[in-house]
Amino acid sequence: MGYKYGIWAIYDNNIVPTNHIGHFTVTCFMEKEDAINLYNVLVERCGLEIEIEIDRKHAILFDKNMYKDDDNNMSSWGYIGHCKIWNELEEICKKYKCNFSHQIHTSIEYSKNDRYKKYFKYNYYYNTITNAKLHVVDITSDKPEDWKIII
pTM of the full predicted structure? Predict the structure, then answer.
C-alpha cells in the first residue's frame, strides 16, 4: 500500500546517506492529481526550494503509523528538522485532502520489524542546513527504495 502520492522536500543524499531518496515529507496519502495541483500552488507561493535545518545531533525513533491514514506498520529512525516556512506550508496544505507532516522529520531507515542496520551510525556533532527542493512523489510501494519522483 505505501503512502500513495505526496509532496517531499528532497535534499542531497550525500548529506545523510539513505537507501531511498532522502527527503522531508510535506504531505502523503494523496491522489496523484491532487498532489500535482498542490505542488504547483506550493511552488508558486513558497518557491521550489525551502531551507531546512537537520538536527543531526540526535537520531530518534519514529512511531509506526504516524499519519492519520497510515496503517503500514512501518517504523523508522531519523532526524528532526526545523523550517521557518513550515507553518505557511501547512496553511496551504489544509485546503487539500492529504496527511500533512506536522513533525518536520527525515527518515533514514524504515523497518516493519523494528530492526535497523544503520541506527545511530550517522550521529554527528553538528546540525546541517540544506536547501531542499519540493517534488511530487509516488510512494505507493511498500519498499522505500522503490519510491520515485514524478515532478
Answer: 0.92
Instruction: Provide CB contacts within 8 A for 111, sequence distance 6+.
Output: 74, 75, 76
Number of domains in the chain: 1
Q: Which three cell numbers stand for residue 14?
A: 550525500
What tens digit of pLDDT does each residue of 34-49 get? 999 999 999 999 999 9
What gap in Å lies between CA 19 and CA 6, rounded to an integer?
A: 19
- C-alpha cell read off for 82: 526545523
CA angle 4, 128, 74 (to 5 degrees): 30
What value, to the nearest 5°, has the Cα angle with vertex 87 and ends 130 and 120?
45
Question: Which residues constitute the domain of residue 134?
Answer: 5-149
